[in-house]
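B., you asked whether I could sanity-check this one before it goes into the benchmark set. Here's the sequence:
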Amino acid sequence: MTTTVTLLHPGAMGAPVGGQAARTGTRVLYVPTGRGPASVERARQAGLEAADSLESALSVSDLVLSVCPPHAAEDVAHEVLEHGFRGVYVEANAISPDRVTRIGKACAERGAVLVDGSIIGGPPAGGSGPRLYLSGDARAVAMAAALFEGTDVPARPLDAGIGAASALKTAYASFQKSARVLAAVSHALAASHGVGDELMREGRELTARILAEADHFPSVAARAWRWAPEMEEIAAALDAVGLPPDMAQASAAVLRRWSGDKDRLDLPLEEVFAHLRTPVGPATDDAAGPTG
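And here's what the prediction gave me:
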């Protein structure tokens, strides 16, 4: 029997992801009412089927796949539940574990089953695509994963409850998106002093895969006592040319949480993480020492 899915909504990510599900023989519906011409065209190119209304789409759907802007996630979920949907609701937006837990409770109260989903990577194109992580009720997770079997959106079920998939996305995005912003600020500072080309050259020399190098975190904690004041200097340099110093100041504040770990290069990773949860007092003058 053909599985039917309502996709909300056919945006730059949602439409091609829904199109991948359609490749498996899944009937993927969307509601063109209220959508702009670009969304409707994306849906057409992805092979999605237009429905007359959200009510009519939900009435024949086994699953809902929600891929929308994060701020709209709860409103979209409640709109679906108000129509009496009782199937599997795949919440695949970039939202916090707490928010997805609230949506899960609302689903349970209305008789629907929530699957916590997170999409990591860019929209599917050219034979490659993002990974779709899924957590929650095992049967519902398996049902959602089956939509993408053999497609360019590999589904990766997690043996965990609601909140796990969203936590993974939040953790990944906190690094990946912040790193892009930080790179832009760094280049703006370099350009302000006429050394943009040199910074670009240094950037090309980088080989580190920072997010995959957890074994380096103890050395970061061990050097935090001298990195924190360096970040304050960077904040001052940014402020002097009218650039936002916020990220540098925030880094300094985080580094100060490791202020008691000076030179502890053998600090266990669990302690490195635990000390991040321990606030410290106001910044104080650090002992003089080399930077690096």
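One thing to flag: The longest helix spans residues 164-192. Otherwise nothing jumped out at me.
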